[in-house]
Amino acid sequence: MLRLSGITKRFGALTANDAIDLDLRRGEILALLGENGAGKTTLMSILFGHYVADEGRIEVFGDPLPAGSPKAAIAAGLGMVHQHFTLAENLSVLDNVTIGTEPLWKPGRDRAGARRRIAELGQRFGLAVDPDARVGALSVGERQKVEILKALYRDARILILDEPTAVLTPQESERLFVTLRAMVADGLSIIFISHKLPEVMAVSDRVAVLRAGRMIDQRPAAGLDRATLAELMVGRKVSRPRHTAANPGAPALVFDRVSATGAGGKPKLHEVSLTVHAGEIVGIAGVSGNGQSLLADLAAGMARVEAGRLTILDHETRRPDPAAMVRLGVGRIPEDRHAEGLVGDMNVWENVIAERRNRPEFSRWGFLRRATARAHAAELVRDFEVRCPSVDATVRQLSGGNMQKLILGRALALHPGLILANQPTRGLDIGAVAYVHQRLLEARDGGAAILLISEDLDEILALSDRVAVIHAGHLTPARPRAEVTVSGLGLLMAGAGDPDAGDPHPTTPEAAHAS
Amino acid sequence: MRLERRAETPPLLSVAVPVLALLAAFIIGTLLIMISGASVPAAYAAMAEGAFGSRFALTETLTRAAPLMLTGLAAAVAFRARLWNIGAEGQLYGGALAAVWIGTAPLGIPDTLLLPAVILAGAVAGGLLLLGPAVLKTRFGVDEVVTTLLLNFIVLLFVSMMIEGPMKDPMAMGWPQSETLPMAAELPRLIPRTRLHAGLIMALVAAGLIYVMMTRTVLGFEMRAVGASPRAARFAGMGVGRVMLLVALISGGLAGLAGVSEVAGRTGYLTLDMSPGYGTGGVVVAMLAQLHPLGVVLGALMVASIFVGADAMSRAVGVPTYIADVLVAVSLLCMLTAMLFARYRLRRG
Amino acid sequence: MEFIDLLISAGLWATVLRIATPLIFGTLGELICERAGVLNLGIEGIMTMGAMVGWMAVFQGADLWTGLAVAAAAGLLVGLLHGLLTVPLGLSQHVTGLGITMLATSLSYFAYRLLLPETTTPPSITPFAPLGDGWWQAVPWLGEVIGQQTAPTLLALALVALVAWVLYRTPAGLAVRMVGENPAAADAQGISVTGVRLAAVMAGSALMAVGGAFLTLSAFNAFFFNMMGGRGWICIALVVFASWRPGKALLGALLFAFFDAVQTRLQQMTGGALPYQLFLMLPYLLSILALVVMSRRAAYPQALMVPFRKGER
Amino acid sequence: ADKIKVASVYTVPIEQQWVSRIHIALDAAAKRGDIDYEWSESVSNADYERVMREYAEKGVDMVVGEAFAVEQAARRVARDYPETAFLMGSSFKPQAPNFSVFDNYIQEPAYLTGMIAGGMTKSNVIGVVGGFPIPEVNRLMNAFMAGALEVNPDVKFMVSFIGSWFDPPKAKEAAFAMIERKADVLYAERFGVSDAAKERGVLAIGNVIDTQAQYPDTVVASALWHMEPTIDAAIAAVKAKSFKAEDYGHYSNMKPGGASLAPYGTFEDKIPAELKAKVEAKKAAILDGSFTVEVNDAEPKPTM
Ligand SMILES: Nc1ncnc2c1ncn2[C@@H]1O[C@H](COP(=O)(O)OP(=O)(O)OP(=O)(O)O)[C@@H](O)[C@H]1O
Ligand SMILES: Nc1ncnc2c1ncn2[C@@H]1O[C@H](COP(=O)(O)OP(=O)(O)OP(=O)(O)O)[C@@H](O)[C@H]1O
Ligand SMILES: [Mg+2]
Ligand SMILES: [Mg+2]
User: Fold this and answer.
1) Which of A143, A299, C245, D164 sits in a 20 to 30 Å window from A204, CA-based?
2) CA pair distance A88, A96, nearest whole angstrom
């Protein structure tokens, strides 16, 4: 159905794709794997016409595909779900799906017909969404559906999904895979990029591995194991950090029946209670949008307590603020490294000292001590293996993995008593994930209390000493790692165990709030 | 075809860029001069002469550049923090009004302190004028482009009300102008028998201070961070609202100083037609300088010399005087375009 | 009492419509540009150019509608320049806009003086005449209001509906909104972001120019330097006030014009007891107040002022 | 004598009524061959001093302009160039040795037009629309109002300032508002007022320039300003090397021909003979000095 031959793409001195050959067959799911920066997105962008390859050709259903035209790609039956959603939040689902499907000079739109077709596609592939909903009001999972609907609406026969599950919950991912299988059964073909090896092995028929812009291997998925795949991608053995028993100490973070309301009044926390002790990692699992961001914001000093008591490193606070958190020695890893973690337009060294700019090491009389700041940043960059041209490089130039290492380094540099790690490895490749996990475990063993919030159950299970589940603003008691299972967590995340959800095995509120 | 960011700008290019831009502006200017039937070589000779050709021309260019430097700094500081202050014109008049008020009201300020008091008053008034839009922005999310634009009209009407009312100079034969500042409140002349006054020194010092503030101080650091990413700045523990208000005070204050410079350095009293658009001129200058405080000095000199030169040229060769503004605008647009190509290259695909 | 009479008088509302007309054109034009993600601070200059060019065409013998068309064409051209600089090149929209205002204004003056070097009284043309009598006269109050208007005012009102329909009910309008919200999304669906934005800026600028021409071809009969008097800047405020919706833009323009019309009458009625500047301030002060009330819910086009360069992030 | 070089510096475009009168007078002198004439228009406040100096440096014999709002700067330039003659519109006194002043003292014909307005109004309501209440405007309005009251003590005035020199649409709307409130004669200080009057079929009184040709059925009478006597006197003085600091203001009076009541033209037959006689008598009284029109620069207040 699709044949790429000899695709080469250079960005300046860097060769992002190096003479890549790839075939896609009808009705198959091909997983495209590779480390961060291996060139996966670049390859798919060339396929879809966002970039023009320097060399090589593309054939779709036997016909050559004109380069550099998304329009031509769509016409040829290609559909792409981008790594970062391309949706207009202020417009409706209908608008987002139908954009570009009618000639621009047509006087009037066929909105009724579009609604019908969206409903029909939704039925057939399990992608039902309200066509008149504003996209900004949808959950991440629903937005993903809209993205896929967009492709299907255009009769895509080949669908490209760039890290579609990076932001999905296990349940949502599972539903996505059901949809994908339905599509394959319908005769579509799918290219699917992911860093999550278990799901790759579960859904794909074939895997193709890129490393540093080169196609390293293509082979059937059947019979592959995780270690082999990891080795193929990275080019060496990846050892996963070993989780050893914790040695909990004094309480470092105590939520005592804390209630709070998030921005826009939407996510609410209801009398959440939780204690994280020094030397342990408590994982919070939950489907995005159930209040974990607000929970994280409270611990990071970005939101305010409405009722209850929040005690952080022995200080009770109602209106935590980020500066106070930094002073108390809380290391914070935010959910969104681009929007919250770093200032993309500023230098590496400036970002390193951003939180601690007022400390005497870094400023005196209101003037920055640039030399010490630079030296400190250089040391941190070395210690945390951040790959960057220099500490004077702007952060925007760093890859996602390196940005994350920088944030990690900044959070850990001061040996904080409490670490808030919110989605610490989202979008990272397995090498980088292993590195971050290793560092977090070391910090725990050094006596830090760690609150880990993640939508990735594998990550929760790999790191946590105790696990709690958040759903609709309610938090279950944290249970020891050994007592929880993936399926049990999944049920809790879906709302079982929630007093408001008509739980068949009700736990008393008292029990639910005991930590 | 698309634009691709260059990894770095070749040194040759950074020299060639302004030259090429001015060349392009030169060609367009030549066309205009030819259309109006004047001799092109004579026109350009007159233009150079008018901007730099004599001590008089040079001091005139510098005199015009001084307020542009201050409003340029005002725009540069605000824009760095993504506070889109389009209201420098109003702040300039507000500053001038406050300066005149302090300078002429019977407050019993000793002569030695009068000039500092006048300068301070102008800066504070300008700053306060931008504080309102900044508070509306941070508190209510009201777009500051719009509020600062509208405030220009309000301030001008207010100034008009004051100089036709309580602050009207009784000695002005009914003409609406403020009282004249006493000698002690005037900025000294730098060169006798020219208009060049200490406002230029004020502007240069301000540029230096702003440069140091932006690059060397914690406050400047916070301003840049808030401008580049308010969310990340807040996460790092910066009071975004507080920083915005400080930016507003500084930016508005600089524009207010431009008003002080004009009223205490050039005119001595306030009239409604004092500024020939120094407010928007400042935005132009700031962007030419790519928001760099020291670049603002150069940008202001460039704009001032083109205007003063072209204005003299229009008289010398009999071209409609509006050509001066045309040439400033054309040079600005050419310069912006050229600067873009210093950072980007055209590439296929 | 006298004030109540004033508020319901047909004369006042006829005035309101007349004052509002250039604002309606300008605001719709700016709205289209901003919906596509481009702030157009060139509006004041583009309106000046429309006023000059449209008038000059009629002065040289063209008929009035041709004059409006010539103004629109000039607007298209200046819009093309603004569009080229801000869309494919992605220059800062603030400074480009101010530069365009400076350029269009000074170029208009320059050209006017070149074409009419020796004029000591402004030459004039015969402008659009009020509609006067017609079947509408039968409607008591409204008839009087309409009778005082000129045809371009009706055009402005019709354009409000047309722009709303195009924006919300046609694929082209959807494309405009999409490039203003998320250009990458439009690009990924094969829509030329550059093309749509350029077209929107050009169309919007044409409307602004027609708004300017209204002043010289209908509201008055001659061109004056500085004649725009900040009307363009008001339009910028009105677009925000209108939350980028054509219907509300009409409402905003009428409201502003209402304040202006009442201001004139209050000034005359209060007999000089208060400084006249206070009355002149009224429309601006109330606009800011209205913005504060409205702004909480204002949903900006997400990509407003964000240049789109393919393949950059 | 030889031609002399004269340069004028205007703060507004030459279309502006006020400036156009100076420009016309200088242009006429140039056409006669008396002077070489150069001019700059729309010179901003910030540039005014520079432009004056540029001309002085260039060696022109006389600089003509308006010193309003740049009074001190203009006088400073005059001090620096004592060889050059300066003839400036100004409300202040001349400054020795070379700075002479003039102003539009045309309150006399303005008074006469006021009389005509007072006699022509049927509603006894007269509207006055101005740009800004500056002395040059106020004194004409006040004289106009005094003239109207003389023939018709019942007349009431409305006064509006539009806060702009160049906004005819705005002036028009202010005039419309007055017409709605029963004004049937309008004093057209700004462009736009006569248009409103024309559209609504009421009368207008012109100011400084004669616009009856454009509004034949609207503009009843106008108070005209003629700069020729002022300019010609100054040119003669410069040529005779006798130019000194003087107040040329009186050259704008009716007697030397610096001001006049425009011909009635199309209204010759529409103005009642009795009223015309009154006006003629007053004109004679002004010319022979038995009646003086008061110069009142205070902001005129409405009387209704
Ligand atoms: N527009 C660009 N300009 C310059 N370099 C680029 C550009 N896009 C990608 N690159 C470079 O090309 C390489 C491949 O990037 P690409 O986005 O394809 O990686 P990826 O495999 O998708 O990574 P990830 O798993 O993190 O998504 C990266 O090293 C990046 O530095
Ligand atoms: N359009 C571009 N222009 C310039 N450089 C780019 C561009 N796109 C990517 N890069 C470069 O690519 C590198 C990062 O690319 P890459 O896609 O691997 O990041 P990533 O790991 O996928 O990040 P994320 O996890 O945030 O998606 C950086 O060095 C960046 O400078
Ligand atoms: Mg990535
Ligand atoms: Mg990728």
Assistant:
1) A143
2) 7
